[in-house]
């Protein structure tokens, strides 16, 4: 049973076909990257999986159960969590609060016992806190200690990205959808986040579906790469194989119009 | 371990300081009260007590509205409707049997309405509250009345909260406003007259619980603040704040939007109903024009001026609003036109001065905007003309400042919205730790060193390694061209 | 992107609203037929009269609703204070034709305020407040307005025109002072400010116009009786029944022409559709917004004056604007906010539901009628429309947004 | 290829721009000479659109200087820049969907008063895009993507600009149509109007442009004559975000 199984999903906005009969399987413990030029439908794909949009046709299964038509919060309950491309943190709340909030759906106390602070609630709150710290500790000491109590708006861009990933982990999800986890990070931070994503899989046991533009990150950690263009899957496979696919290069660079080059375009000669 | 003890000690200290602070506040208030008594034995003390009671009652309403507006981030404008429902319910339940009969089975109503009235009446009777009429037992009846009032209002809150699942922002604000007005307009119709006695309402709600003693209002205020504060700092409060910050992200983090929004409405409406019960008791009766939209406006001012989302801020804002309502009446009396002109002039001059100071502090150029010149000159002219007032007859005419208090509050709200949208206190609560400068969001020396190491640019460059790559490409292209 | 998308969006809606509307229409038709059988009183003349009275009321709401819809179209703000602008228009008209109760100094104080507002308006077209033309304009405005407030009595038509202009200035001033600094603020802040402005104007009205119900009966033939017969029944009304819808039609046509034909009107439409690109074409968005407030407030003033004519009096300033304002807002939403024809259609819906329904469900010995509830109809309709079809009757897709 | 002797039409000197606290452009130097066609390339989110918005004055220059026709322009409003001869074809076309083709074109000439000259320009636009003349009274929103692109270009031409800024004219269009659009861009350029194209479709853009700049994370990493860039290996790498 695959972790995530997408079969023949279509989605159109008005006349614009955003996703065209897409098939995608993600096995447990895999890191799969989705790449493609702007407007290829990557973020739409995430929105479809997390229930923000409902597919026009096709089926999306998570651990063998269809999640089509479920609300985003129900899908989180089942175990799928995401980050957002343009950071949707709770900006005026502290880092700790941001990582506590995703655990709220697992709370089984009523609001009344939360107000009265019953022992059961206190215990739960303590557990939530420990869980939050555990997830934040994936990023080393950066977000621990005093940063826990800082509101998100004072954090650096990279720290916000980290908080958002920790927040997604704190939902208790098994499948994480990371939308450009390294956007706005410098090379060093990118290297670090690459290692962290791998550790999330190895130590945390997460399955990861990833949208990314930085190719070296994709190349380093992906088990499989899926290339989208105009909502269609144009290639799938190992990184090296996909990146040297002429179709992929064309999708990124555009069609060659001057034919002096001959039929075979120059090999970009990608390292690694 | 040591740190734990430290935290416990600090907690104990803060609790102690909290009690001391409240005690000091009570002492100050008692002192002011004695001053008020000395100055004008009857009016002074009554007015002062009135201000305190009003603060407590409006405080309950404003703090509860703050749950929707501040914590949940939904602009709700129907709070006066919830207060109305709570007020009418409490009023009906506390009314003596005779007084109730006069309303419920009014001779002018039709057969169907009488039937409705009678059935409601028998329902009231079955509550057995009529037995509690002596001075010793009336408090119990009042308590039941207030709780029932709150519950009925909470039910209304449930109904009003449901549209919040589909609507957002300003549309939702209008719908809550619409609900508030529907409640108010319906209460005046003949259909509900058997319950409400039309727009006239009914007198005879005992005043002793709100007007004559401070225990009830302040007790209930303390309860409200307790519940709201505990709620705010619980997991539920965090979830609601998450909805305020970003609804889409909150839902993507597994929060059930519908449940939490409606929950917020229900809890807030309950306390609004309680405030309504106290309000009719303070006024000694129930009437439709006790529940105008301006009530909600006052709470809105209290919340926005004090600090949206901050309970202490809202209480501060309420104190300000109540102060202006109770002690702002000099603004509404008759003065000579010259006095008004001078008053306006002085306000303009102060404003102009403040603008100049602000602009020079911020180094905004030009420091004096032409508008300021114009207004300042006009103000000076007005003041000078006012000084020579006796020479002109028309300067002596009197002019009454109707509505000046409300004008003052609205201008204050506009100014706050423009210059400090989060209110005077802002989002955060008052806390002793903050007073003592113990800020957990500031690093200790050790942490600062660690942080510096982590963000060390030297280190970063060494780790990144392939930094030169970028330059070489740049260099290459330059070489080619 | 294509035409088919627009059509499918318009027709592919759910059927519940249509069912409800159909049911309501059926009830109304059934009721009319039923009434015809029970009493002589309910003849064609009765229904004609109810119909044209509703039309009249609807055109009053339309004038106010246009202001809401234009402002919402441009800056996405529910201008809560618009009902109060309407009140100001009514009172200004009244004082212009009936003679002012003000003495010179009070008139001068008000004149100062008006002149300042006028200068802020001129500032838009001249760029600087200290521009000589603006200063001269301010001085002239001060003189004229003081003179007018203290002495002048003019005939109704001029009173209407003057008050429309003055109210327009009030509208622009509100925008400049209260809304302009908040252009980039969160929408809730803007809405709270609008509520504060509304409250400010209510109480300023109290201060300026005195707190009482004011008779509004100018000496014009427009109030004279007018009657005609239809299917043997005589309908007796006044000439207002002709005048009010007529004036409304003229104003709406002029507004539509302005918006569709003039350069500034086109800039308004462009700004409503895509403010950023309009700016990239060289449109001064602030000027467009000011124009919007000017036009909306002028129409509201006309509505206020005619409101007074229609009811023979105007309510206390603190309450006059609230109900008509909020009903007109409901009308704008019902029609499809942002759309000019939508506002007119929505206003007619409100006018008919308020007047026609209460007329055909009159008080009878066993039934109290629904007159008492007529003020809640607008709210109920508003809530219904918002929940079922937030884009309104005309809808986003088909309407021409302004 | 040297143009040093000529006046510069547009010059960016060390320009930086910020969105809030996030820096979107970093120390960008760029020059456009009269009559030239320059393209700005770069991968996703590299700051291309921001550059364009900064030139147009929608985003403020936070550091550095911007010169247009020899005069300092970074303090001018958008309207003033347009009056001096800039025009824009925005990303995703963004025509006014509820206005007719004619009205859309008239909006392009919003700041102009000279009726006769406007009519001439209208004729020129119809000559370039006969399709628009056929659909003069159709609503903009009901046209196909390609037609909208034509309309957006026609709208920009209506202000009789010296410099047209284009943001991704090829986005969302069929390949055949992309070629058509670029042919027309070349025609426009041949009339002496400078064109500044922001593009993802590097090969098409470079094949007709005179010079190109490559942007990555807000910085210019490559620049040079178009033909050289077209064959530069480093560009391909930069483009795929391989850094």
Written overview of the protein:
The complex is a heterotetramer of chains A (272), B (481), C (402) and D (243). Chain A is built from ten helices and ten strands. With 272 residues, chain A is of the alpha/beta class. Chain A has three domains: 1-27 and 55-71, no CATH class; 81-173 and 182-190, P-loop containing nucleotide triphosphate hydrolases (Rossmann fold); 224-272, no CATH class. Chain A has a six-stranded mixed beta sheet with strand order 6-7-8-3-9-10, sandwiched between helices. In chain A, strand 7 (175-179), helix 7 and strand 8 (207-211) form a beta-alpha-beta unit. Helix content of chain B is 72%, strand content 2%. In chain B, helix 2 (43-71) runs antiparallel to helix 13, helix 11 (235-245) crosses helix 13 and helix 14 (293-306) packs across helix 15. A six-stranded mixed beta sheet of chain D has the order 6-7-8-3-9-10, sandwiched between helices. The mean pLDDT of chain D is 85. The longest helix of chain D is centred in the last third of the chain and has 16 residues, at 175-190. By secondary structure, chain D is of the alpha/beta class. In chain D, helix 3 (101-108) packs parallel to helix 6 (145-157). The chains are: A alpha/beta (272), B mainly alpha (481), C mainly alpha (402), D alpha/beta (243). Chains in contact: A-B, A-C, A-D, B-C, B-D, C-D. The interface between B and C is large, with 58 and 57 residues.
Ends distance of chain C: 21 Å
Give the class of chain C from helix and strand content and strand pairing.
mainly alpha
User: What oligomeric state do these chains adopt?
Assistant: heterotetramer
Please name the CATH architecture of the domain at 1-85 and 196-243 in chain D.
3-Layer(aba) Sandwich
Report the total helices of chain D: 10
């Amino acid at each position: 049973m695959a972790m995530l199984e997408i079969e023949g999903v279509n989605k159109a906005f008005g006349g614009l076909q955003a996703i065209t009969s897409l098939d995608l399987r993600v096995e447990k413990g895999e890191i799969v990257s989705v790449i493609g030029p702007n407007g290829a439908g990557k973020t739409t794909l995430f929105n479809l999986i997390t229930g923000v949009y409902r597919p026009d046709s096709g089926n999306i299964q998570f651990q063998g159960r269809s999640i089509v038509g479920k609300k985003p919060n129900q899908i989180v309950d089942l175990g799928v969590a995401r980050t957002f491309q343009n950071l949707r943190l709770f900006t005026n709340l502290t880092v700790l609060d941001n990582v506590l909030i995703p655990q709220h759906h697992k709370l089984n106390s009523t609001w009344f016992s939360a107000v009265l602070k019953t022992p059961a609630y206190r215990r739960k709150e303590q557990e939530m806190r420990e869980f939050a710290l555990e997830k934040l500790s994936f990023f080393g000491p950066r977000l621990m200690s005093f940063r826990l109590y800082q509101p998100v708006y004072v954090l650096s861009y990279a720290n916000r990205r980290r908080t958002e990933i920790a927040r997604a982990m704190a939902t208790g999800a098994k499948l994480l959808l990371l939308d450009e986890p390294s956007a706005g990070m410098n090379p060093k931070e990118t290297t670090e986040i690459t290692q962290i994503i791998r550790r999330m899989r190895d130590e945390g046991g997460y399955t990861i579906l990833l949208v990314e533009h930085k190719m070296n990150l994709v190349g380093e950690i992906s088990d499989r790469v899926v290339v989208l263009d105009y909502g269609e899957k144009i290639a799938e496979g190992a990184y090296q194989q996909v990146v040297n696919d002429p179709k992929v290069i064309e999708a990124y660079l555009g069609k060659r119009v001057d034919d002096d080059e001959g039929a075979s375009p120059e090999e970009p000669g990608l390292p690694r | 371990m040591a740190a734990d003890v430290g935290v416990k000690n600090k907690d104990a200290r803060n609790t102690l300081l909290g009690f001391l602070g409240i005690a000091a506040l009570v002492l100050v208030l008692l002192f002011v009260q004695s001053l008020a008594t000395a100055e004008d034995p009857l009016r002074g003390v009554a007015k002062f007590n009135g201000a305190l009671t009003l603060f407590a009652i409006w405080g309950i309403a404003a703090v509860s509205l703050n749950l929707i507006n501040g914590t949940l981030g939904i602009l709700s404008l129907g709070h006066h409707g919830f207060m109305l429902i709570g007020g009418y319910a409490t009023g009906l339940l506390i009314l003596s049997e005779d007084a109730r009969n006069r309303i419920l089975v009014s001779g002018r109503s039709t057969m169907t309405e009488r039937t409705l009235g009678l059935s409601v009446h028998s329902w009231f009777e079955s509550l057995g509250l009529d037995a509690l009429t002596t001075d010793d037992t009336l408090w119990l009846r009042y308590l039941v009345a207030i709780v029932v009032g709150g519950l009925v209002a909470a039910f209304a809150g449930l109904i009003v909260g449901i549209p919040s699942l589909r609507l957002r922002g300003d549309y939702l604000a209008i719908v809550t406003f619409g609900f508030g007005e529907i409640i108010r307009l319906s209460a005046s119709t003949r259909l509900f007259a058997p319950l409400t006695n039309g727009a006239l309402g009914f007198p005879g709600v005992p005043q002793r619980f709100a007007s004559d003693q401070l225990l009830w209002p302040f007790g209930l205020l303390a309860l409200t603040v307790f519940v709201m504060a505990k709620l705010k700092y619980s997991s539920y409060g965090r979830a609601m704040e998450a909805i305020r910050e970003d609804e889409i992200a909150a839902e993507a983090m597994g929060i059930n939007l519908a449940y939490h929004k409606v929950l917020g409405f229900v809890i807030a409406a309950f306390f609004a109903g309680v405030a309504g019960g106290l309000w009719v008791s303070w006024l000694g009766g129930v009437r439709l024009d006790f529940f105008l939209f301006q009530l909600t406006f006052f709470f809105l001012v209290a919340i926005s001026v004090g600090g949206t989302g901050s309970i202490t801020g809202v209480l501060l804002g309420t104190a300000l609003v109540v102060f202006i309502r109770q002690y702002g009446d000099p603004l509404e009396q008759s003065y000579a036109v010259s006095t008004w002109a001078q008053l306006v002039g002085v306000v303009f001059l102060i404003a102009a001065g403040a603008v100049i100071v602000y602009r020079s502090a911020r180094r905004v150029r030009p420091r004096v905007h032409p508008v300021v010149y114009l207004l300042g000159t006009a103000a000076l002219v007005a003041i000078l003309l006012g000084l020579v007032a006796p020479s002109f007859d028309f300067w002596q005419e009197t002019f009454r400042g109707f509505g000046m208090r409300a004008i003052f509050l609205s201008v204050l709200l506009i100014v706050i919205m423009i210059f400090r949208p989060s209110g005077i206190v802002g989002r955060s609560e008052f806390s002793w730790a903050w007073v003592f400068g113990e800020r957990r969001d500031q690093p200790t020396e050790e942490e600062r060193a660690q942080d510096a190491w982590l963000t060390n640019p030297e280190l970063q460059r060494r780790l990144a390694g392939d930094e030169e790559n970028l330059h070489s490409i740049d260099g290459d292209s330059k070489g080619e061209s | 992107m294509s035409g088919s998308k627009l059509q499918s969006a318009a027709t592919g809606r759910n059927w519940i609203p249509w069912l409800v509307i159909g049911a309501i229409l059926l009830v109304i038709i059934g009721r009319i037929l039923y009434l015809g059988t029970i009493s002589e009183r309910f003849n064609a003349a009765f229904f004609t009269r109810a119909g044209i009275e509703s039309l009249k009321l609807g055109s009053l709401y339309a004038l106010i609703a246009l202001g809401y819809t234009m402002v919402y179209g441009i800056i996405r703000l529910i201008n809560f204070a618009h009902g109060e602008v309407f009140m100001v228009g009514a009172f200004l008209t009244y004082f212009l034709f009936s003679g002012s109760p003000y003495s010179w100094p009070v008139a001068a104080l008000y004149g100062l305020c008006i002149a300042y507002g006028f200068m802020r308006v001129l500032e838009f077209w001249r760029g600087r407040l200290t521009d000589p033309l603006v200063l001269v304009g301010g001085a002239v405005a001060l003189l004229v307005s003081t003179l007018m407030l203290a002495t002048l009595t003019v005939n109704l038509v001029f009173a209407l025109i003057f008050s429309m202009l003055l109210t327009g200035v009030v509208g622009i001033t509100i925008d400049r002072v209260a809304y302009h600094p908040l252009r980039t603020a969160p929408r809730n802040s803007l809405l709270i400010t609008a509520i504060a402005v509304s409250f400010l104007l209510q109480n300023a009205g109290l201060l300026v116009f005195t707190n009482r119900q004011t008779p509004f009966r100018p000496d014009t033939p427009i109030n004279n009786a007018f009657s005609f017969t239809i299917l043997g029944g005589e309908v007796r009304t006044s000439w207002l029944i002709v005048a009010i819808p007529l004036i409304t039609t003229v104003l709406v046509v002029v507004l539509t022409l302005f918006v569709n034909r003039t350069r500034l009107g086109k800039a308004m439409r462009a700004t409503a559709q895509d403010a950023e690109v309009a700016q990239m074409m060289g449109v001064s968005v602030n000027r467009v917004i000011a124009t919007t407030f000017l036009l909306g407030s002028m129409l509201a003033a006309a509505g206020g004056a005619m409101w007074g004519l229609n009811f023979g009096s105007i309510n206390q300033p603190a309450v006059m604007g609230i109900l008509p304002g909020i009903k007109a807002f409901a009308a704008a939403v019902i029609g499809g906010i942002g759309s000019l024809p939508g506002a007119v259609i929505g206003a007619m819906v409100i006018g008919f539901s308020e007047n026609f329904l209460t007329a055909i469900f009159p008080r009878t010995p066993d039934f109290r009628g629904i007159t008492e509830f007529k003020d809640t109809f607008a709210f109920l309709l508003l809530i219904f429309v918002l929940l079922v079809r937030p884009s309104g009757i005309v809808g986003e897709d088909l309407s021409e947004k302004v | 290829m040297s143009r040093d002797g000529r006046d510069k039409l547009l010059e960016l000197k060390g320009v930086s721009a910020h969105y809030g606290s996030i820096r979107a452009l970093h120390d960008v130097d760029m020059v456009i000479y009269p009559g030239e066609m320059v393209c700005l390339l770069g991968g996703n989110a590299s700051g291309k659109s921001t550059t364009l918005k900064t030139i147009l004055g929608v985003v403020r220059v936070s550091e550095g200087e911007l010169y247009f026709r020899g005069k300092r322009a970074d303090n001018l409003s958008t309207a003033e820049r347009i009056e001096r001869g800039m025009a824009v074809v925005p990303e995703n076309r963004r025509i006014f969907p509820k206005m007719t083709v004619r009205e859309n074109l008239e909006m392009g000439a919003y700041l102009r008063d000279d009726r006769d000259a406007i009519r001439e320009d209208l004729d020129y636009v119809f000559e370039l895009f006969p399709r628009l003349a056929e659909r003069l009274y159709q609503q903009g929103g009901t046209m196909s993507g390609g037609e909208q692109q034509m309309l957006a270009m026609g709208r920009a031409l209506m202000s009789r600009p010296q410099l047209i800024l284009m943001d991704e004219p090829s986005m969302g269009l069929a390949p055949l149509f992309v070629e058509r659009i670029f042919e027309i861009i070349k025609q426009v350029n041949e009339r002496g109007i400078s064109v500044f194209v922001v593009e993802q479709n590097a090969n098409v853009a470079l094949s007709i442009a005179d010079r190109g700049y490559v942007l990555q994370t807000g910085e210019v990493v490559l620049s040079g004559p178009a033909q050289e860039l077209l064959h530069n290996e480093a560009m391909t790498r930069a483009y795929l975000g391989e850094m």
